[in-house]
Amino acid sequence: MAHAILLISCPDQRGITAAVTGFVYENNGNIVHADQHIDGQTNTFFMRIEWDLEGFRLGKDDIQSAFQAIASRYQMDWKIYFTDQKTRVAVFVSRHLHCLQDLLFRYQQGQFSCDLKMIISNHQDARTMAEQFGIPFHVIPVTPENKTAQESQEIKLLNDNQVDLIVLARYHQILSKSFVDAFSARIINIHHSFLPAFKGRQPYQQAYGKGVKIIGATSHFVVEQLDAGPIIEQDTVRVSHRDSLEDFILKGEDLEKAVLSRTLRLALGHKILCFANKTVIFD
Amino acid sequence: MAHAILLISCPDQRGITAAVTGFVYENNGNIVHADQHIDGQTNTFFMRIEWDLEGFRLGKDDIQSAFQAIASRYQMDWKIYFTDQKTRVAVFVSRHLHCLQDLLFRYQQGQFSCDLKMIISNHQDARTMAEQFGIPFHVIPVTPENKTAQESQEIKLLNDNQVDLIVLARYHQILSKSFVDAFSARIINIHHSFLPAFKGRQPYQQAYGKGVKIIGATSHFVVEQLDAGPIIEQDTVRVSHRDSLEDFILKGEDLEKAVLSRTLRLALGHKILCFANKTVIFD
Amino acid sequence: MAHAILLISCPDQRGITAAVTGFVYENNGNIVHADQHIDGQTNTFFMRIEWDLEGFRLGKDDIQSAFQAIASRYQMDWKIYFTDQKTRVAVFVSRHLHCLQDLLFRYQQGQFSCDLKMIISNHQDARTMAEQFGIPFHVIPVTPENKTAQESQEIKLLNDNQVDLIVLARYHQILSKSFVDAFSARIINIHHSFLPAFKGRQPYQQAYGKGVKIIGATSHFVVEQLDAGPIIEQDTVRVSHRDSLEDFILKGEDLEKAVLSRTLRLALGHKILCFANKTVIFD
Amino acid sequence: MAHAILLISCPDQRGITAAVTGFVYENNGNIVHADQHIDGQTNTFFMRIEWDLEGFRLGKDDIQSAFQAIASRYQMDWKIYFTDQKTRVAVFVSRHLHCLQDLLFRYQQGQFSCDLKMIISNHQDARTMAEQFGIPFHVIPVTPENKTAQESQEIKLLNDNQVDLIVLARYHQILSKSFVDAFSARIINIHHSFLPAFKGRQPYQQAYGKGVKIIGATSHFVVEQLDAGPIIEQDTVRVSHRDSLEDFILKGEDLEKAVLSRTLRLALGHKILCFANKTVIFD
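ok -> structure tokens follow
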């Protein structure tokens, strides 16, 4: 049976939790997860609540309108998701295929509850892999000259397929402001450094040149400013002077895969809330 | 202003969260933390809820009786704590003083919101340290012959000082069943291995002999069976063939301190619930 | 140009390092790596030395006989490897394919400098994957009744293909003593727990039942006694009460892949020495 | 019996290791550790070799002159240390005393083989602690006006006591270029962030504001440019949205202590070599 998931943020005040959990209970819902957080600095309330729809008195459309009364009272930003409506995902990739390969195998194994609609690339390299896993593959090369036109084509493809979430799995093109605005808070990127250190190009080379003893990987929502969006997940691994640049890359690529797959699971579980250029992760 | 903290476990059913949060809201409480968990295997519901008593309509004693109605309805195991009533703690130690020293310095810095009533040891080694930090120190040597009598003296000391929580900070005596029963789920031990590996004596020697590549430390509640109680917190660190037994100990002692201090903060924050020889940690 | 790699162990005494490095230098070798270790408990000397054969005065066969003089003087156990002679590897797998898939993709990417000769399984599950990556696949089902005969067939296959190294990538059959003896110190297993905790069957279930806060994976050489051989590499990851058994498995499988691939790279680089049921890792 | 430790760096060429180990062997030395590294990018050779002076044919002064012949042949940068000549250390601290306290307790326990000559501070806060552990304590307040004069006094104090190594254990003053030059590669700082992220003031506040999911600590040699010297050691710990700024600090301070104490042990063991604004760590 499907579950409903509510994601809420609003100014904190007395009674919000009681109102939300009361709403679920009075309509005969069985709460299976509930987690809340209060940001002390901004006095903001965040909540994720998930309940079983078995025996629930309201249909999906009725939930929306019925909950709006509570939402208005507490000035909530809110969204509702249903676990039987799978998120439609597009993956963008360039020529480094390790993240894509990892995502595809996990998808095949059933680790991601989503509908992987397409892979978009500015190169041909991923074609064989896409075909092996049976995912539609679109090559859309991008140059400074054709960027606007090609992005329009991408946006049309994404909208025609009702794509909800875009995953940049080592896609080495900077998306324009208008593209980012069209999918606000719905584009996830994996950056191969411990942000905010080593933004931009060739972070492994930067880290190797600096002589750090730990390297990292970071997933974040894409915003207009490069590698500066809200951080979702990070991980690190030790390196030493014995590690060559190739070793940095080998170790780092393993981090990238782990961080990106954890991030996608969080996103598909509707466990991420953005606020003030940070994230709340209901894990 | 003080907060109230409720710890609850009961069979899961519809409406528990709504009932508990409704209780707080109807009495004008402001929830500052709420976290719940459902154990799918046993269908058990767990909750920790903390609210600000500023403006709350019920006094401390009235809360207890008023909440009992809800508790009975849902067959709850429950306890309530108030943050202005500090937990009274006793630390037991033998001859390895690193954990004690770490606890005392953190206590002095204000990291532990508790009242450290006494240090009990079967040796004189910790006396100088106890005096330096101004904590009452009792030496109670234990032999197989006098164990029962000495434990009785310890229990009397603990009860006379209304000690709520006992921390074994490398206390190398096995407590009798009757002692453990007298402080059930209120004795925390730090064991210098990654349990359940390397129980009992000389775990660093055992780990060194086995040639493991990672060592650990584990905090747990003390039960009658040696090193087998519910695990609260664990941590690990890498070792290699280059590490001597002395290096294992040096690295491991740092783990012990970190794990024990985190555990004590969890315990003092009333964030630990035991069930089925496991723990739920509301961190 | 190829490199030579010497792995040495012997009783420690003055002059060993000088003798070995002198041998390389006098024959015009350029040392690119050298690492040594002395085990204080047993007074044993270990060394791995790697040099560029460009301009070296001795041919491969001559190195062997020339070095024997030094080896005899110091009672050395020693082996020499040449980087242009690729290790021939066989992978054994049952029905959990995540480790195999990870190995195959890394192999395809060029992360493993070896010749992957075959995949052997007691089930059909891995066939598609093996074919996708173009690796010969042999199904050899094992029952208590046919075990001796089937193992003989496996040994013949391995010997016919001059296999140097066997990787058990979640192969759920216990190898007989005679099989293990036939490939002594040349069979690597990945066990899905933090050994020596949770040996044997269903380690994730064991860990979940125990309520540990950290789980692990361990690679080791296979010896006759189950899951008790010299440990090569281990890693751990945090879990909490919120993790179901399925989450334990999901997190643990990522550990297994990481530990096994690191182990295979160590083995192929001839960086592992066994002694006294432990390993020296020249990383 | 004392050991000798040689630290060497020079352009790589054939024969260096053989020459150095031959020197030790011909003079009847017993090598207890030897480790070398070649930096492929700059073709630089690094070596640390340690041998037992029991039975060695050369006295300490004779070693220096005898080895100079080899050093000149290979254009070596080199230093020799003897383990019976303890490093003389000064600790600088301001008002955050957790690192100092940790260092002092470990020093008392015998974890640091050094002679702790003095604590210098620009504040009175550490006085009690210094007295408790019996270490000379000097308060030298620094303002923009008196900085040059006060640093001269500090340098005189350090030189009068023949201090070899300066540890900045949360000393919140920027040292002048002339001070840094006077103790080049002999001043170690602990910075409370994962460098190069969050340089300068209030790194915990910076990290909290950025919403990172992992925080770190970094030890490095002090150079003129702020927080930019060669990195010696780093470590990280996970944080989440649930961690307040105070939690960041609490977790981070534990990292600082661990990283600084490991760094000091490396430095006292003469296991650190600087080159090209990086470090080689012979651990």
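Helices of chain B lie at 16-26, 60-73, 98-109, 127-133, 147-160, 177-182, 203-210, 245-268.
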